[in-house]
């Protein structure tokens, strides 16, 4: 058989081992894997100096199109994702306008996304006060999970997302459990964090450090415990997004040991930037939950080493430059959200695999296999015959400095600018097509396809 492409001689990362193998691709699918494949092929890639692994599946990305394309659109956002080694992502139901909370708004999202994605994508649906009766239709349309905010969301247009009150959280969980779906939760106590913030800003305490103090560790832990408790009552499957504290990780691990169906993600920034560094970097590093102390960060690293962090996601939450500025240097006023998805894989491969000797197979589980499994994303998350050829090449001997001009974001305000990273994604393939190459940049046209959750029946009709 003549193949479309053979990736030759790379150190291929499989589920439980790394082996030097050739990978043959036909019609976007991995057709053969062997020590050597000598068949003819339209194209070959020499990967002998590289790791070859499944692309990242980033299940936490805020693309702000439609409605706020000037913050970040599908084209710029997915170029950055592709250049960073992500081959598939899940778009969050907020920051675009309108928020994705029913069939109509999902169709608007899907329509806006058509033909503009360089990588494959799926959608989240939102749980907000008042849309309980719309969750089934979102499920029927193939959203991969539902998302809610226990803290306030930071946007204030009438068509924006709203955070849940406890009643909505409880009834939403009941409904989502009936649908057999997962509820993903931004867990921070809204009342306490908002009031602490107001209090501090009222006293003129407006620095980066003050912002961090207004969202203490216990406000995350309390929200996690409350959600776990309600999850237990309702038997709803849960997923906690961007967990930033060791105590929250332990609570979730404990609930899992006791039989709850619950998972968690954390993000590269919680492992690579401390609260003290946030003060030096400035608004680009503002996010919620906030960056934590070195001590807290070290505990989180230990938990990652112990396998307690199921997955890594970017929480790419971009905004225009003026929203990261405040004439009075008031950190409560600037946008909370990090523009960071282009460096996910490089940063965490460097810090986790190269610097802390975490097995590369575990790393790949966190960036690819676990998210694919948890969110039912079919045919992705693993290098194996008959899977989609969503593959990245990583050079573990190539250092670079993150520079503004290399970033594909609409607004190049990453907190990682100036940072040296000691490895680099050199190629990204989506279903066998090279969409990014380090030397040539983004290649070809946007070929990304929408993915519907495996468990769903109705085709997404757009
Ligand atoms: N609205 C929004 O994107 N918020 C995100 N930003 C952030 O730092 N945490 C979030 O939940
Ligand atoms: Zn969030
Ligand atoms: Zn987010």
UniProtKB/TrEMBL annotation:
Residues 51-433 form the Amidohydrolase-related domain. One of its GO terms (molecular function) is zinc ion binding. Pathway: Nitrogen metabolism; (S)-allantoin degradation; allantoate from (S)-allantoin: step 1/1. The modification N6-carboxylysine is found at residue 147. Gene3D superfamilies: Metal-dependent hydrolases, Urease, subunit C, domain 1. Its cofactor is Zn(2+). It is an enzyme of class 3 (hydrolase). InterPro entries: Allantoinase (IPR017593), Allantoinase_bact (IPR047604), Amidohydro-rel (IPR006680), DHOase/Allantoinase_Hydrolase (IPR050138), Metal-dep_hydrolase_composite (IPR011059), Metal_Hydrolase (IPR032466). It catalyses: (S)-allantoin + H2O = allantoate + H(+). This is Allantoinase. It comes from Cytobacillus oceanisediminis. The gene is allB.
């Amino acid at each position: 058989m003549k193949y479309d492409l053979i990736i030759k001689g790379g150190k291929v990362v499989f589920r439980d081992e790394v082996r030097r193998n050739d990978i043959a691709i036909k019609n976007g699918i991995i057709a053969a894997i062997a020590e050597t494949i000598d068949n003819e092929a339209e194209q070959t890639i020499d990967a002998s100096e590289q790791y070859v692994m499944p692309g990242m599946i980033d299940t936490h990305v805020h693309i702000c199109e439609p409605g706020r394309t000037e913050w970040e659109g599908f084209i710029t956002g997915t170029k950055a994702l592709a250049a960073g080694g992500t081959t598939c992502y899940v778009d969050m139901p907020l920051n675009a306008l309108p928020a994705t909370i029913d069939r109509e708004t999902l169709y608007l999202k899907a329509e806006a996304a058509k033909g503009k994605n360089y990588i494959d994508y799926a959608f989240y649906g939102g749980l907000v006060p008042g849309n309980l009766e719309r969750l089934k239709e979102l499920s029927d349309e193939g959203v991969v999970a539902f998302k809610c905010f226990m803290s306030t969301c930071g946007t204030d247009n009438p068509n924006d997302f709203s955070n849940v009150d406890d009643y909505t959280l409880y009834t939403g969980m009941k409904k989502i459990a009936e649908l057999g779906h997962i509820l993903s939760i931004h867990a921070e106590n809204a009342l306490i964090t908002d009031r602490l913030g107001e209090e501090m800003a009222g006293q003129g305490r407006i620095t980066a450090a003050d912002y961090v103090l207004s969202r203490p560790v216990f406000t995350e832990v309390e929200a996690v415990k409350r959600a776990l408790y309600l999850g237990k009552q309702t038997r709803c499957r849960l997923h906690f997004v961007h967990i930033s504290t060791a105590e929250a990780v332990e609570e979730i691990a404990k609930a899992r040991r006791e039989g709850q169906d619950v998972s968690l993600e954390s993000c590269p920034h919680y492992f690579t930037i401390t609260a003290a560094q946030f003060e030096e970097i400035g608004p680009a590093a503002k996010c919620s939950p906030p960056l934590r102390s070195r001590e807290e960060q070290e505990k989180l690293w230990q938990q990652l080493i112990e396998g307690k962090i199921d997955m890594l996601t970017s929480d790419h939450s971009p905004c225009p430059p003026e929203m990261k500025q405040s004439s009075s240097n008031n950190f409560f006023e600037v946008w909370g959200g990090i523009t960071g998805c282009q460096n996910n894989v490089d940063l965490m491969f460097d810090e986790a695999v190269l610097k802390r000797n975490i097995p590369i197979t575990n790393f790949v589980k966190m960036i690819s296999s676990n998210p694919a499994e948890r969110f039912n994303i079919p045919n992705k998350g693993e290098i194996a015959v008959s899977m989609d050829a969503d593959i990245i090449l990583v050079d573990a001997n190539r250092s670079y400095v993150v520079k503004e001009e290399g970033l594909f974001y609409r607004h190049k305000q990453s907190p990682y600018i100036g940072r040296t990273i000691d490895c680099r994604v050199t190629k990204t393939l989506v279903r066998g097509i090279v969409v990014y190459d380090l030397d040539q940049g983004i290649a070809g046209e946007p070929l990304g396809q929408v993915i519907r959750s495996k468990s769903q029946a109705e085709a997404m009709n757009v």
